[in-house]
Amino acid sequence: MKTYQAPLQNRTFRWAFRPLFRLAFHILGGVELIGRQNVPPRGPYIITMNHVSLYDPPFLLSFWPVAPEAAGAVDIWGKPGQGLLVRMYGGIPVHRGEYDRQVLETMIAVLRAGKPLLLAPEGGRSHVAGMRRAFPGVAYLVDKTAVPVVPVGIVGTTDDYIQRAVHLQRPRVEMRIGAPVALPAVVGAGAARRAALQANADRIMAAIAALLPAEYRGIYESAVG
User: Fold this and answer.
1) Is the separation of the CB atoms in 98 and 136 below 8 Å?
2) What pLDDT does residue 127 have?
3) Helix or strand or coil: residue 41?
4) Percent of the chain with pLDDT over 70
5) Helices (H), strands (E): how many in the chain?
6) Is residue 22 within 8 Å of 126, Cβ to Cβ?
C-alpha cells in the first residue's frame, strides 16, 4: 500500500501559516465558525466546500482544527503569490475534469494514511456566489475509500473581500460545517456507474447547498428542501 506523509518543509509551513492567517482574517473582518461539533475526531475523511474565490482555501485551512491535506486546480501552481503558497503548503495539483491515475492514487494514499483531505468538487472557484455542478471525482474517492464526507459552506469570501476590508467595512466570513453525508453504494458499470458517481457528487453538493444562503446555492437551489 502506498503511504503518504507531507514533506517536513510543508508541515513546518503549515505550523506557521495557520495562526498567521487566522490573525489576518480576524483583523480584516468578522469570523464565525458554525457546526464544529460535526468535525470527525480523527481522520480519514474528505472535506468538501463551495468555492467562490481564492480566499476560501486559506480561510478553511487556517481555521480547521487540524491542517488537512488539500487538492487544487493545477493552474494555481503557475500564478504568482498563489502558486508560492500552494507549493509551500504542499497542495496536490489536479487537472480539473481529467482522469489522472497518479493524482487519484496520491489522494487515496492521503486518506488511507488516516489524514483529512480538502476538495472543492466544483473543480475551481466560480467568482460568483452561485454553485456550479460538481465533477464526479469526489464520489470516486469515496467509492474507493469509504471515508466520511464533511460538507462545508463558506460565506462571505467573495472576490471583493479585500476591497471591502480596505474600506473598513469589516467583511464577515463564515464557515458552516455540516454533518457527514451518507451516500449510497455505487453499482453497475460503464454509463450506469458514471451516472451513479455523478449522482453521489450531486448529493454532496446538495448537502453543502443546504448550509448556504439561497444566493449561494446556484444550480443546487432546487436540491434544498
Assistant:
1) no
2) 76
3) coil
4) 99
5) 7, 7
6) no
Mean pLDDT, residues 185-189: 91
Residues across the chain: 225
For residues 59 and 160, is the Cβ–Cβ distance under 8 A? no
The grid coordinates listed for 6 are: 507531507
SS3 letters across 172-218: CEEEEECCCCCCCCCCCCHHHHHHHHHHHHHHHHHHHHCCCCHHHCH
Topology of the domain covering 8-223: Glycerol-3-phosphate (1)-acyltransferase (3.40.1130)
- For the chain, the domains span 8-223
State the burial class of residue 53 (Cβ atoms within 10 Å of its Cβ: 0-12, 13-18, 19+): buried
pTM reported for the whole predicted model: 0.94
Peptide bond connecting 44 to the previous residue in cis, omega within 30 degrees of 0: yes
Q: From CA 52, how far away is CA 122, in angstroms rounded?
A: 10
